[in-house]
Amino acid sequence: MTNTQISEIKDLLSTPQNIVIIPHKNPDGDAIGSSLALYHYLKDKHAVTIVSPNDYPEFLKWLPSDKNAIRFFDKQNKQSKRVLEKATIVFLLDFNALHRLGSDMEKSVKKFDGTFIMIDHHQQPDPITEYIYSDTSVCSTCQMVYHFLEKLDAVNKVDADIATCLYVGIMTDTGSFRFPSTTSTTHRIIADLIDKGADNAQIHNNVYDVNSYGRLQLLGKALSNLKVETEFRTSYITLSQAELDEFDFQKGDTEGVVNYALSLDGIIFAAIFIEDVEQKIIKMSLRSKGAFSVNQFARNHFNGGGHDNAAGGRSEMTLEETVNNFLSLLPTYKTELLRSDEV
Ligand code: 5GP
Ligand code: MN
Predict the structure, then answer these.
(1) pLDDT above 90 for 342
(2) Which ligand is nearest to the CA of 293?
(3) Whose CA is nearest to atom 10 of ligand 1?
């Protein structure tokens, strides 16, 4: 984003606007954290609504919000469309291709002819708008929102609510500050967010120590389904719809489970396959260490994408067929998988 564009955005925001903030479908901590942070920053001067394609996980429900701050496009379709029709500015946060909204919402958003502003850290952004702040080297959209506020000379407006929302997205997208995308700048920003009122110990507790018994049992099932392909330094987990039902699956329950597969010594490529009978798809999460790009793998074979070391995709085959397809692809990548610089 150029300095001229920043000046233009400052100008735009100097008068009251109708602003809609949109995170991607199945919003995670970074998507909902960045959306709420920006909402809290903008709400003093503007009419602001977050329109999320669908609901977000229970373990994020404590995040500071307001009544009707968030509309869900699937469940509150009329209200969502109404705010979109009135919008003068639409922020797109933590995604860079409109199909990540789901086809219904994508259609509505495409009708918008005002100013789009995109802030995102995923690879290969679609050319949706000239106001695009894209940086794949930054760990999280929340960190980018902090930098965006720096560019607007507005970091002094970051209060405890904004700091809390930004902290959550940075924490969740960096695996609690451990992924290689975590830099000294990230830690400096985190320090500033704590100074501005983010209660770090409480936040970790709110997000990570709220497991239900069912979720832990489901994790147990996932771990017992773990398979290892030592030859390819790959491991994977499957969860069928029947298994999800048995342990009373709730949205967000499988988040992070794929990381257990990646935590195996010597493994540099991990996948989880989750059956969704309602949507008739297998949702996949892919993770890697080192140079092996799961973004490329997901794009090439599973209609997905994301980052080099964390990506997602989907398949319309059965769970068994999807896994077999996945396994049949591994030999093609053997050299790359063995060459990856992680031991
Ligand atoms: P997760 O596996 O946690 O759902 O997603 C990992 C990363 O990949 C996230 O940054 C997420 O936004 C991205 N991602 C997940 N699914 C998809 C997908 O179907 N398409 C694209 N382009 N990105 C995805
Ligand atoms: Mn993110």
Answers:
(1) no
(2) 1
(3) 306
Which ligand ends up closest to the CA of 311? 1
Average pLDDT estimate for 64-80 = 97
What is the DSSP annotation of 87-121?
-SEEEEES--SGGGG-HHHHHHHHT--SEEEEEE-
Q: Going from the N-terminus, what domains does the chain have, and what CATH number goes with each? A: 3-208 (3.90.1640.10), 213-339 (3.10.310.30)
For 190-240, the DSSP string reads HHHHHHTT--HHHHHHHHHS---HHHHHHHHHHHHT-EEEGGGTEEEEEE-
- Is there a contact between 179 and 309 (Cβ–Cβ < 8 Å)? yes
Span 75-98, mean pLDDT? 97
Rounded to whole angstroms, the Cα distance separating 135 from 146 reads 13
Rounded (10°) CA dihedral 310, 316, 320, 324: -60
Query: Contact, 280 vs 272, CB < 8 A?
Result: no
Closest CA to 288 of 221, 219, 227, 341: 341
pLDDT digits (tens, 9 = 90+) for 236-250: 999 999 999 999 998
Cα dihedral 339→341→342→343 (10° resolution): 60
* Token reading at 65: 């919000």
Ligand 1 contact via 261 beta carbon (within 6 Å): no
**CA 227 to centroid of ligand 1, rounded, Å:** 22
Return the ligand 1 atom nearest residue 272 CA: 2
Ligand 2 centroid to 331 CA: how many Å?
30
In angstroms, the CA 95 to CA 74 distance is 18
Residue 44 identity: D
What value does the mean pLDDT take over residues 252-267?
A: 95
Phi, psi of 155 (to 5 degrees): -60, -30
Can you give the pLDDT at residue 340? 75
Cβ–Cβ < 8 Å for 189, 158: no
What average pLDDT does the structure give for the chain?
96
Cα–Cα dist 126/124, whole Å: 7
For 207, other C-beta atoms within 10 Å of its C-beta total 19
